[in-house]
Amino acid sequence: MTTTTAPAGPDGRTVGKNSPGAARGPRRRTGRIRRIGLPYLLLLPALLLELLVHLVPMVIGIVMSFKELTQFYIRDWTTAPWTALDNYRMSVDFSAPVGEALLHSFLVTCAFTLLSVGLCWFIGTVAAICMQDTFRGRGLLRAVFLVPYALPVYAAVITWAFMFQHDNGLVNHVLHDQLGLTDKPSFWLIGDNSFIALLVVSVWKGWPFAFLIVMAGLQNIPKELYEAAALDGAGVWQQIRRITLPSLRPVNQVLVLVLFLWTFNDFNTPYVLFGKAAPEAADLISIHIYQSSFVTWNFGTGSAMSVLLLLFLLVVTGVYLFLTSRERRRSARV
Known about the structure:
Helices cover 70% and strands 0% of the residues. It has 334 residues and is mainly α. Helix 13 (285-295) runs antiparallel to helix 14 (299-333). It starts with 19 loop residues before the first helix and ends with a helix. The model has no long low-confidence stretch (mean pLDDT 86). It is found in: Cell membrane. It is a multi-pass membrane protein.
């Protein structure tokens, strides 16, 4: 007859199966598993929504880009014939009408994005620096500055569309009737001036976001730095150049990236301002892809254009993050 002995504890005493020390180990492991699994459990609804709202449509769009999907196959798009890379070849063939139109739209979007992001950042930074000092009415003025950002996009853009009207718009009334800066009322929603109108609306509704982010970043700069610089004889511009802008570099790096992605992908502003057919001067790539997909009913080509746009934004974002991270590491070493 064999006998079994209970395992000995750390102090040499035997521990029975029903003793508190024996049950303490499994309980600890169970508690640790619960603590580790709780964050993933809380993130599960967001992950499922991300999967259904973004990832699944993205995969379907990539599959559609390899098909000859036109209006004849809308009822059952899975029966559309495969075209391999023909949609991509057509999109990047800049000597053909489709590729030439896409290249023109891409260049217009790049110019629009650079100007809009630059102006939004500049106006927002200047306004935030001016609002840094305490004065009477500063809170009210800050609230007024944030009104364009708080307004719904459709309400704001529709208001600007009425203001840009040729005959009874406020813009022509001020520029032509009141100030006499133009010889005749201008067309702002068609022709070459449509690019200026789109840029004005984009900057008007975008700079308050830059103002809000920069203003939050300014709160983390110690006032002692400005006081020490003032004692050393540094002027306002020197303080901004030597203290404010270098301290805001991490904030500006994130701000510029977010503004770039928002502006480059902006669809609501040109769609509400011009409708389905944007003028050639304001033919952003988002509107161009929409026209290729839902106006001409060529979903295969439109999907290929969307995939190319996604790849471009991923490359630009990756290069930007690589350069900024390398710059941060270099600054940390210094």
